[in-house]
Design a protein that fits this description.
Elements: H1 3-54, E1 59-65, E2 70-75, E3 81-95, E4 98-110, H2 114-117, E5 122-126, E6 134-139, E7 144-148, E8 154-158, E9 164-165, E10 168-172, E11 180-188, E12 191-196
Parallel strand pairs: 4-7, 9-12
Antiparallel strand pairs: 1-11, 2-5, 2-10, 3-4, 5-8, 6-7, 11-12
Length: about 200
């Protein structure tokens, strides 16, 4: 191979490498900026609740941003909170040669994060739910299970203690669900409620 051929091969290889790097960097940046945008939105939402609790308004709204498989959960007390439902099919073999297909419906709850919230009202962003769950109530006759689903990456902030809060949760299951959702805040008799609009 002559010098021109070697140089042309080197330049083409370099261009292909730069192209792969640029595409890969763009994908990684989009994924992380999306997650950071949802985290910043959660922080802004918490500030909105704090400002709302101090102000004179009785109602306001906020546009919440969630990534796929994430949830925002408001805890008024130290009890687990319902987040979302799932269904799954399981094959059970009660005796050899007999297989039954059972369609279980699971209510997934997020346990109160005692170490983070310390017994106070708080709002949490679960950025990734664990794949496994821990059943705490089973009703096999109706094929229903209630289970705690822990969070891989949990961010929580305490809420102002001057009010009590009505429990609430907002969940985005997949990328096919809307990323943004309008939520309403209302104040009545010392209780702040956060609801879907």
């Amino acid at each position: 191979m002559n010098k021109k051929g070697i140089m042309l091969h080197f330049i083409l290889s370099l261009l292909v490498a730069i192209l792969f790097f640029a595409v890969g960097f763009g994908v990684v940046q989009k994924v992380f900026s999306t997650s950071e945008q949802a985290l910043q939105n959660f922080m802004d939402f918490n500030e909105e609740i704090k400002d709302f609790s101090k102000g004179n308004k009785e109602k306001t709204s906020f546009i919440m941003t969630l990534d796929a498989n994430t949830a925002v959960v408001l805890f008024n007390d130290n009890q687990r909170k319902f987040v979302y439902k799932t269904e799954y099919l399981e094959s059970i073999t009660p005796q050899p040669g007999v297989t039954i297909e059972v369609n279980y419906k699971t209510e997934n709850y997020l346990p109160y994060p005692t170490k983070i919230c310390e017994g106070k009202a708080c709002i949490c962003l679960c950025r990734e739910f664990k794949k496994t769950f821990t059943p705490f109530e089973k009703d096999f006759s109706r094929e229903n299970i209630k289970a705690d689903r822990n969070c891989e990456r949990l961010v929580c902030q305490n809420l102002p203690e001057t009010f009590s809060y009505k429990d609430a949760s907002f969940y985005r299951a997949s990328k096919n669900d809307p990323r943004r959702e309008v939520v309403g805040l209302s104040k009545e008799n010392g209780v702040i409620s956060v609801t879907k609009k």
